[in-house]
C-alpha cells in the first residue's frame, strides 16, 4: 500500500516498451482490415483499466492514513501527467481521475489538501524570511517588492490548480476552487492579524511588506481571472 509507484511505473514501462511493436507490427494489420482501432491506445486503455481495479481495491484500505493517501494521490497525478503528455492517452478514455472523483475518496482528498495547505501556510508565515523579498537585491526584477510569504502562498494556490485541473467533472473542479477561496480568505485573516500588531509603525518594514503582499496577490488573482 505504501508503494503505488511500483505498479504505476510498471504500467508506464509496459506502454513505452510495447509502443514500437504495436505501431510497426499490429497497427498495419488493423489498418489493412479497415479497422479504426489504434493499437497503442487500446493497449494503454486496457492497462489503465487494471490500474483502476487496483486503485478501487487499495483506496478503502488507506483512506484514513493521511500520509499514505497523500502519497497515493501524488503518484497518481504524476502517472496521469506522463500518460497524457508522453504516451498521448485520450481524455475521453477511463482515467484514474474518475476514481479520485468518487465521493468518499474525493472528500478525503479535499480534506488532506486543506490540511497540508494550512500547515504550509503556518510554516511560511513563521519563517524568518516571511516578509523579505527573495529578489530584494535585484531592482529590475523586484518592482512589486513581494515578500516571500505572498509569493509562496500564490505558488501554493497554483499547485492546487495543477492538481485538480484534469478532473473530469466541472462540479468537482468547483469544489476545489471553493477550497482555494477558503485558503485566500484564511491568508487574508492572517495578514490582518499581523497588520494589527504593526499599526503603531505604519511606515515600518513589516507593515509595508503586508501592503506589498496584498497588492501582489490582488494583481495575480486579476491575471488569473481569464483562466476558466
Automatic annotation (TrEMBL):
Which Pfam families does the UniProt entry name for this protein? RINT1_TIP1
Q: Which PROSITE patterns match?
A: RINT1_TIP20
Q: Which GO terms describe its cellular component?
A: Dsl1/NZR complex
Q: Which GO terms describe its biological process?
A: endoplasmic reticulum to Golgi vesicle-mediated transport; regulation of ER to Golgi vesicle-mediated transport; retrograde vesicle-mediated transport, Golgi to endoplasmic reticulum
Matching entries from InterPro entries are given as: RINT1_Tip20
Name of the featured protein = RINT1 protein
